[in-house]
Predict the structure.
Amino acid sequence: MIRQALKVFKALNSNEKPWQLSLGLAFGGIIGLMPLWTPHNIVLLFLAFIINLNFALLLIGLFFFSGIAYILDPMFHQIGLAVLTSEGMQEFWNGFFSNSIFLFDRLNNTLVMGSLIFSVISAVPLFFLINFLIRKYRENLMGILEKIPFLKSLKLAKAFDTVTGGGS
Amino acid sequence: MKIFRWQGVLAFALLGGLAGAFLILFLDGMIERGIEKKGSEAAKTQIDIGSLTTSLLAQSVALSGIEIANPDNNIENLIQFEKLSLDLDGAQIVSRKVIIDELQAHGIKLNQKRTQPAKVPAGVESSQEAGQETDSADQKGLSLPGLGGLSMKSPEEILKSEKLETLEIGNRAKKTIDDLKTKWQKKFETDLNPNAIKETKQKLAELQNIVKGGDLTEIPKALQEFESLQKDIKSRMDRITSMKSELQKDIKMAKQQVADLKNLPQKDFERLKNKYSLSPGGGKNILGSMLEGPLKEKLDKAWKAYQLIGPYLNKGKGSSPAEQVYVRGKGIDISFSKASPYPDFLLRHGDLSLILFDTEVKGEVNDLSDNQSVYGKPAKLNFQSGKNQNFNSFALDITLDKTGPQSLDAIVLDMQGLNLKNTGQAELKEGLAKIKGQLTIIDENNLNGNFKAELDSVVLSIPKQDGNELANTIAQSLSSIDRINISVGISGTIENYQLDIKSNLSEIVSKAVKKAFAGKMKGFESSLMSAIQAKTGGVLSETKGSLSGLLGQNKILGDSGSAYGGLLGEAKNGATSKAVPKGLPSLPGGLKLPF
């Protein structure tokens, strides 16, 4: 836990651009909110590998939002059910799912479809919100927090760990 | 700052490669364990796979040593396959559908003993006890069971558990007659007051005295009173006559009830004799116990297997989103049949080889799917074989049709020239059998079928049972026959079905039973009759007593009638006995005025 907190702290105070951090968290959110073993998560993971985002924040987002997903599970089901069984969309879905790759992706599952819609839609404002907060943090708080001896010592300890190869 | 880090492709490829290598190395084992674990949980019985090999390039799977344990008998396999190979439609795997283009199943055996007892899968409640069915119907065959249930009960035991019609109707008749008696007693008290006769007598005497006294002033009044008294007596007599006719009706009814009781003990006797003595009817019971038990055992097994596979073949029903149950973490799959006109599971064609009576019978399965309403074709399974050492011909056709709103499954069997010697039944030494029949199951529950078996040149050898006279006599009688016809009708529902068994054996067994129990039956019958008489005698005599009481009421009424008749005569005579002087007008009823 401390290691994760340190990672966040380190990332916030690093030279990385805010979009890299917030995109990492948004990707983590999308992957975390959806059932893990789905083919499109592999695609997202591939994208995460090649896009220069912060991987530590992706992992933190993944674990955090996996927990949230469990709570929101019934809501995802309801969203998926409403979308997949909507009268007006039946023709579209019949055409969509005639491509077997989407069935392989289990997009006809209420939970997969509901969580995908929710996570993709919520990832956009989440990205901009986190981006904004990081900027604000760096502008207003980073300087102050760096002066706090405890956090300073944590940073030093982390730096020491990095140099010595140890870990907490 | 770069947006892309292309070295990520390398890292991803490396990870993917590792995952791929892992799958190639361990996929077969994973699938094997997956089928064993998940399959056992789904089927609620242990499933074992000897080996499993997949070929991704050929899109095929080969399995060997597949055993599915009997959920009710852990030392027996419900079905086992020596070898099973499947050619899959790879394109449909992407759609998460298992479409088997071709299946080869060899060495299919039913109800084979396991080398090791099956374990109950985790999360499944055990319904089996180790080795509980070692003496299953297969081993029992046409043996004569202990016939313990057929021992004759004592008449006292029978009468304890049986209701006697004589007692019921006798008590009812007695109550009716007693009620009538009470009714008439009450009527007599009110309508036939004994004091009324006395009062009439007294009044008559008084009037006669007045007339005798010759007081002319009193005579007109007395004459009026005579007239009124006569009217009163006549009205009472009319009432008695009407009561008499009413009483006669009641007595007639009561007598009829008592007369009806006379034949009831005999009726009770006949009923109980037919039920409990080993009469020709009892012979049918024995045949029932010989055939029905083993047959039902086999049928129950078949229903269980049918119900076990039923849900996997009928996903069409209950597949609409409204009917599916949402499970947290799993959601529900919505099917778009227009987009993908395939069921989740389909076996287009399969070649089967079933081992029946140690002989290979070839068969075919076509269009076996888990959702026939999507696929639109019923599943068909047939086995056929020509002449071999065990039978002249064998044909079994099974159709599982769930395409319509009402499912209609059918089994048609035609087996000619079955050599009974090789059926594994120790009692059947020789003989040929012809078995033909069909069974339809509507809506997976309602049964309707009939099977006929004609056994020719039969040589039966049923081992003797020490101390079981009945079984030995039946065995002896069966050993002399060479032709057996058995017809079994099946009706009802799977949970509650009836077997209507008819056979020429009934008569043979009946005769044997009669012979074995002739002496015992006679003794039983006479003691049963005595017991019935003893039990019903009291009620019958009490009812007769009540009837006598009612008849006594008739005497009372008769006496009263006679008494009033006498009084009326006296009244007439008393008035006319006195002469009326000349010149006086005649008095009514012959009375003459003295002036």
